[in-house]
Fold:
Amino acid sequence: MPSASVEQTVQATPHTVLVVDDDPTARLGLVARLKRLGYRVIEAGDGKAGLEALRRERPSLTILDWMMPEMDGPSFCEQVRQDPELRTSQILMMTSHDQPEQIAEGLARGADDFLSKAASKYEITARVQAGMRAATLVRSLKDATEEIRQKQEALERELQSAARYVESLLPTPGTIVPGVQMVHAYRPCLALGGDLFNIVPWSDDFLGLYLLDASGHGVSPALRSSSFSTFLRRDSLLRHVGSNDPGAILTEANKQFPLTENGHYFTIVFASLDLRCHTLSYAAAGHSGALLHRRSGDVCWMTQPNFPLGFDSSTTYVTATLPLAPGDRVYLLSDGLYEVPGPTGELWGQARLEATIRTLGHHPMTDVVSAVIAEAVRWQGHEQFLDDVALMGVEIAV
Structure:
């Protein structure tokens, strides 16, 4: 036989129980028992008043009579489950209906458990305590969910702040040096991208430009690219390399940025424009996203088969040189631009990208860059790229 101590409950902070019953006598007896168990109790004489009390007090548990005026128990449950603010409330239906089909109806309409009006004090205590355990668990889950939501919002704010910082590292479109114009487009696949590009102004008639890609996506590659961009500043290159030769710059970068412990690496193309000698010099490390579009209409892809940076510290990167003429354009682009899959899985590819640039000819470069991005979007059928996308165009004035 259960001992009398079953009704003794010690609670530092009493839970609140809402009792909804139109029978004052039945309600009085149940309220007295709940108070002896240590609960704070509030009362309502019908379903409508009970619903108002539930919204106002947010009790841990509601004990609800089935048969009531204004709004019966099952209708009360349905109202609660339809309300986003109340739907997790724990409801213990109290009824003399103990047939399986009636219990099934009550559960289907939103009750969590049933309590017979003829139940013993021991069963009442046990079912109320079970309801309280469920209410505590639900509230713990809600609190944890809210904490996760707040942390997620904080993380999103941090990512947006970091994304603004990364974008602040990008060059400002317009006139770089007299006679040289630059435009660009940047579409990271996440809030933070691993692709980064910039201009290195050596002098008014000599400048460098690069596009680098850190393997992976998200925060880590974005931070690694930002770190690499510091190395690629003019003063840093003069200090570490002592030269503006693209091959020498990549050879030194290969030593400075080895593979990470997780196997992450960089690909990069670095080009130098000598406006006095009318030459374009370049070197590439595992990167094939660069082309020279001559004013004559010819297209020359600036490719050099070689390892990405960091695979072999002894690798030497060689500089290639092309003649440069007024009206020529240099495009540096990430592989995420042309490796976009269409609905059938076929990639857009370098050939289609080149054809798009040829077709656009020497329309204003801003229009060309926008149109190339738009054509890649059209090919894949949606706006969100699967990889980071960067495209920088530089034009030598006629």
